[in-house]
């Protein structure tokens, strides 16, 4: 349309210009990385808070 290449071809050409990804140093989706790290941190903090609460009320 209007003399332009299809979006798939333009994306493929742009992707071909990128350098190859380094092994172990790449997380492809930034927001997914943020959510993943947030969930891990949240779980660790929740477990620590639960441990402190159990130590305070002395439930064995």
The assigned structural class equals: mainly alpha
Work out the helicity level: 55-70%
The sequence of SSEs as H and E is HH
How far apart are the termini? 71 Å
Count of beta strands: 0
Mean pLDDT: 86
Number of separate helices: 2
The parts where pLDDT drops under 50 for at least 5 residues are: none
The largest sheet is:
none
Cα Rg = 23 Å
Shape: rod-shaped
Q: Which range does the strand content fall in? A: under 5%
Nutshell version of this structure?
The relative contact order is 0.06.
Description:
With 60 residues, this protein is mostly helical. The chain contains 2 helices and no strands. 65% of the residues lie in helices and 0% in strands. The N and C termini lie far apart (71 Å). The chain has helices spanning 7-17, 30-57.
List keywords for this structure.
2 helices, 65% helix, mainly alpha
Q: Which secondary structure elements does this structure contain, and how are they paired or packed?
A:
Layout (H helix, E strand, L loop, with lengths): L6 H11 L12 H28 L3
